[in-house]
Amino acid sequence: MSIVAGCDVGSLTAKAVIMEKGRIISSALLRSKTNPQLSAEAVMQEALSKAGLSMDDIRYCIGTGYGRKNISFVDKDISEIACHGRGARWLNPGARTIIDIGGQDCKAVRLDKDGNVVKFVANDKCASGTGRFLEVMARLLDIPIEEMGSLSSKSTAPITLSSTCTVWAQADIVKYINSGHKIEDIGAGVNSAMAKRAAILANSVGIEQDVCMTGGVAKNEGVVQDLEKLLGKNIKKMRKADPQIAGAIGAAIFAMESLNGRS
Amino acid sequence: MNRPMPTHTHFFEDLLNDPMNYLVEASMDKGKIPIGYTCSYVPEVLLSVDPLIPIRIRAPGVLSTEIADIYLSSVICSYTRSVLEMAMDDQYGFLKGWVFAASCDHMRRLYDNMKYLNQADFIHILDVPHRHGNDSFSWYADELKMLLDNISSHHEIRFDQAALSRAIQDHNDFSALLTSIGDMRKPKNPPLSGTEFQAITLSSLVAPRQSILPKIQEFKESLSRQEGISDYRARLLIVGGQMDNLGYIRTIESTGGLVVADHLCTGSIPRLAPIRMDEDPVTAIAAHYLNRISCPRMMEAFDSRVDDIMKSIEEYRVDGVIIEFIKFCDTWGIESSLLANTLRKKGVPVLCLEREYQMTGEGQIKTRIQAFIESMGK
User: Apex CA B244: angle with CA B238 and CA B248, to 5°?
Assistant: First the structure.
């Protein structure tokens, strides 16, 4: 058996993907724990048990994400920038521009025709434009994070946030809530602010089609639609697997290539 | 890189932990006069005329800048803030003078605040032209003469021709030694890492040269017994301004990069070029500091800077260039964009790394460097 795995330990969630012959045979996604090793062990264990496997069955495993250097069971670590690029490419073979919005950072990556990273930029110093920003705003609006995306289509008069700083935007949101604005209008404004931040990054790497989104925020249809308007480009839907596990998929593909002696 | 470190590596690193090290203290006991300076356009060779010793101003260990934030605007760089914070905390109280250069607005504000708040014993600012040419050169040479006159009258020191020539000779000998060590980074498997080389160059900026010279010579001799470094993924050239924290290059090298050359204000190229000995000393010093290819504050010299970087890329077999700059640094912020585009057009992989003065965000930096190395197919 040539079973390989990718383990992506992010700031908010940990993801694991197990692949065999280029096909996902199991995956798991958990809320990150207090340290990367615990998160990695838990998520990998869940993915293994779903497939009825044990760690001994994994021939090669690659770690990625901010916790990648602290996972004991991986054979090698690769940056999440390369892994999201490779994962997006597997989800959509035409992908050339990847916008990855994760829990604590937002990245734009441009790939060449062979899927290699040509250029990347990251906002990794500020919570605005990240999944954390959406979480904070969803909590203020008292709705589950999963429902944030649908607010944009229900909104008739979206608000405009004057600041995308997470701290100052909270004050703005409270002001709008207190003045009786509809939740959907406020939520649409939050999604739009997120999209504006991501569009700046995407434009700075130079957009080439197909454009794809990975990371948890790819599941927020409000952000995706606003981003499409801002970029003037269609963002390809990736139905082959959950875009949130794209980094772990990329890591598993790199693991497969390492096993076959290609990298 | 798991290998025994060259002789005295810890000795050099230890000198960088505090603003004052024991070698400076010992020199002061012998009557030497430490003068702090902040920029590569302040000629440290003038501040090394006996009994002066030049100390390049750093702010090791400053993690927050509550006091400096009161006096400086929010768009002043964190190097400026950290230095003011350290000075306000009286950690540079041992200095017998400060010399600044009006190299950027941030340095001018530092000078203003130091003069207003710190009331140092001796404080001077050099006006440095932004252009090359005869008029600029005359202006800068006059500025240096004014500096010499002021130090001379304040500290009652005579700067005669012989003393100045001796300082130039010492500077050239010392620079030749450091350059010969830097040149050892050119082969495929160099005997020293970028972190180890930076430890020497930085410690030579904050310790009396005569005290540190024997250790550097022993370090160099020990390199002949060192096994060459082979477990790296990419050879990197680092370009930028004030980078005086070993943590950055150590972090870069922890991801598999090997820093083989630098074009930093606090680095080796072109800072260590020799000064001419066959003309009037002040004229030779002015020509050396004003005309060498270094800082993007100099207008109309962009092409020369690019050519100089391309030359280093070839000589040091560089795979990729990292352009680093401190947030809010106007000079390097603008240069980085132009430089990155120009180098990329020439086929050189480039990473722009905006950072804070103190080492922060290590995880994010590692991710960027690792992705950069991966993107080169290394």
Answer: 55
Every domain of chain A and the residues it spans: 1-92+242-263, 96-237
Has residue A248 got a pLDDT over 80? yes
Q: Inform me whether the C-beta atom of residue A116 falls under 8 Å from chain B C-beta atoms.
A: yes
Q: Do domains A1-92+242-263 and A96-237 have the same CATH topology?
A: yes
Please identify which residue in the block is written with the tokens 């943590």: B247
Q: In the predicted model, what is the mean pLDDT of chain A? A: 90
Domain A96-237 is found in CATH 3.20.20.70: no
How far is A81 from chain B, CA to nearest CA, in Å? 6
ipTM at complex level: 0.78
CATH number for the domain running over A1-92+242-263 = 3.30.420.40
Model confidence over A136-181: pLDDT tens digits? 889 989 999 889 999 999 999 998 887 667 677 788 888 889 989 9
User: What pLDDT, in 10s, does the model give residues B309-323?
Assistant: 999 999 999 999 999
Q: CA B321 to CA A149: how far, in whole Å?
A: 41
Beta strands A58-64 and A76-77 are parallel
Q: Is A8 exposed, middle or buried (0-12, 13-18, 19+ CB in 10 A)?
A: buried
Per-residue H/E/C for chain A: CCEEEEEEECCCEEEEEEEECCEEEEEEEEECCCCHHHHHHHHHHHHHHHHCCCHHHEEEEEEECCCHHHCCCCCEECCHHHHHHHHHHHHCCCCCEEEEECCCCEEEEEECCCCCEEEEEEECCCCCCCHHHHHHHHHHHCCCHHHHHHHHHHCCCCCCCCCCCHHHHHHHHHHHHHCCCCHHHHHHHHHHHHHHHHHHHHHHHCCCCCEEEECHHHHCHHHHHHHHHHHCCCEECCCCCCHHHHHHHHHHHHHHHHHCCCC
Regions of chain B where pLDDT drops below 50 = none
The bridge status of strand A23-31 relative to strand A58-64 is unpaired
Q: How far apart are CA A20 and CA A260, in angstroms?
A: 12
Strand partners, B33: B52
Q: Cβ–Cβ of A78/B374 closer than 8 Å?
A: yes
Q: State the smallest CA–CA distance between residue A122 and chain B in angstroms.
A: 8
The beta-carbon neighbor of B370 closest among A79, A105, A125 is A79
Q: Tokens 């970029």 belong to which residue?
A: A231
